[in-house]
Write a structure and sequence with these properties.
Number of helices: 13
Oligomer: single chain
Helix content: 25-40%
Distance between the termini: 49 Å
Strand order of the largest sheet: 14-13-8-2-3-16-17-18
């Protein structure tokens, strides 16, 4: 695996930013607001041609009490998560094509599983460093990025009075850029001392949420997990000959950046010897700057997230749901994004409908009787790899309730192909964006 040229790195970053520019205005930051942009990019190593296969924006996360047992809300709306979930849609679409039109797919079917073609690699771009451990970076006076902007509420919570904040701003050399992500409750906590001793390094952290505390780990932790066990997740791992690893990570220009911090967060936590991973990714910083990045002029995070999917889908979300959802819709599937657990599970089961031989291989009889969480636990290789990574590298992790026991009903499976195609092709002309069009009531 060869490193990318500086020219190619900048071209990729510019292409991601240009695609975002073409997205309709709805969901983009208003005046004074900032957002993060992330993308997954496919690279053909034979031709060096690339294309953006998924794009996400966002910086919000819903609290633990607002999680959806029915799988219709996306709990973590950070850009990195939206881009990764959009990438999962891209993988599902290519698996469908591997069954119906193999020459168009990036996969080859072999002995009931799917192998990624050798000339295909994936690149992850993000306009800034991921929240959490990787973003804890030493400041220096030759740094032209300025101070990280924090809200007055956050500063008050941190317990700094006005005078102390002035001291911290004037002494960048003995200070660090901070993260809003919190250490896990059962672990050692940040000392929050002035300057460089404010944070502990190498900690698994959870994101701040809307209202109550979240159970979603930081993007530094999630990306590290993707590096160790693959970006595809448990369900897709069942169908692939091997996990999908991101080969290259590109971060945006004009923002605080440290390759050393990224390497620590992804590969070498707690000062211990680097853990062996299947693929050690290359890490780069592009020169291209995302216009909507955090700055003194853009001090408030945008409330919305945007998803762009390679096969013609654009969705706008707020609080983990489709934008524009009314109270009347709250108890229908219409609130669900295409990247929700519910719809990703439907896409997974659709593959078994599309190719009955898969049902035979995995000894799956009645698909409508298999809950989401039960199906995930069938992914033996994935959870073996995850257990090793958790024990040897992370040492600790957030604990979520085993609440996602929803099933896809027989009626939903019967119309799977029709409704899933609607998610790609139905257009709402009032918003000039493509959205799903479902009215199926949620059964609790």
């Amino acid at each position: 695996m060869e490193a990318l040229s500086k020219e190619l790195v900048d071209k990729i970053a510019l292409e991601c930013i240009e695609l975002y520019r073409k997205v309709p205005k709805i969901g983009k930051p208003a005046a004074g607001e900032w957002n993060v942009l992330s993308s997954v990019v496919r690279l053909n190593t034979e031709t060096q041609k690339f294309d953006v296969v998924s794009l996400g924006t966002g910086s919000k996360c819903i609290g633990a009490t607002k999680m959806s047992p029915e799988g219709v809300k996306v709990h973590d709306s950070h850009a990195e998560v939206f881009a990764r979930r959009g990438f999962m849609l891209y993988i599902y679409k290519n698996l469908e094509m591997a069954i119906t039109s193999p020459e168009e797919s990036i996969f080859i079917k072999e002995n009931g599983k799917f192998r990624l073609k050798e000339n295909i690699q994936f690149i992850f771009y993000s306009s800034q460093m991921p929240c959490g451990d990787a973003s804890i970076i030493p400041k220096s006076n030759d740094n032209n990025h300025g101070n990280v902007v924090t809200s007055r509420k956050r500063e008050a919570e941190d317990g700094h009075d006005e005078e102390e904040r002035k001291i911290l701003k004037s002494d960048d050399i003995d200070d660090i850029h901070r993260t809003g992500a919190k250490c896990l409750p059962h672990n050692e906590q940040d000392p929050k001392e002035p300057g460089a001793k404010y944070h502990l390094l190498g900690q698994v952290r959870t994101k701040p949420g809307l209202g109550d505390r979240t159970l979603s780990v930081s993007c530094s932790d999630k990306i590290a997990r993707w590096i160790h066990v693959g970006i595809q997740g448990a369900l897709l791992d069942m169908l692939l000959t091997e996990p999908i690893y991101i080969k290259h990570f590109i971060f945006g220009g004009g923002v605080p950046y440290s390759k050393e911090s990224l390497t620590r967060a992804f590969l070498n936590r707690n000062g211990e010897e680097q853990i062996t991973v299947p693929v050690i990714p290359y890490i780069y910083q592009a020169t291209a700057i995302f216009y909507y990045m955090k700055s003194e002029q853009r001090a408030r995070p945008a409330h919305t997230s945007i998803l762009v999917f390679n096969f013609g889908l654009v969705e706008v979300a707020v609080h983990g749901k489709r934008i524009g959802v009314t109270k009347k819709m709250e108890r229908t599937r219409r609130i669900a994004l295409s990247i929700s657990k519910y719809y990703l599970y439907r896409r997974f089961l659709f593959l078994f409908q599309l190719d009955p031989s898969l049902k035979e291989k995995y000894a799956l009889d009645k698909l409508e009787c298999i809950p989401y969480n039960v199906m995930k636990r069938k992914s033996q290789r994935y959870y073996e790899n995850w257990h090793k990574a958790k024990e040897n590298f992370f040492k600790s992790w957030t604990v979520k309730p085993d609440m996602w026991s929803f099933c896809i009903t027989e009626d939903e499976l019967a119309v799977n192909v029709i409704e899933l195609n609607k998610m790609i092709h139905y257009t709402d002309p009032r918003r000039s964006i493509m959205i799903p069009n479902f009215d199926t009531p949620i059964v609790f």
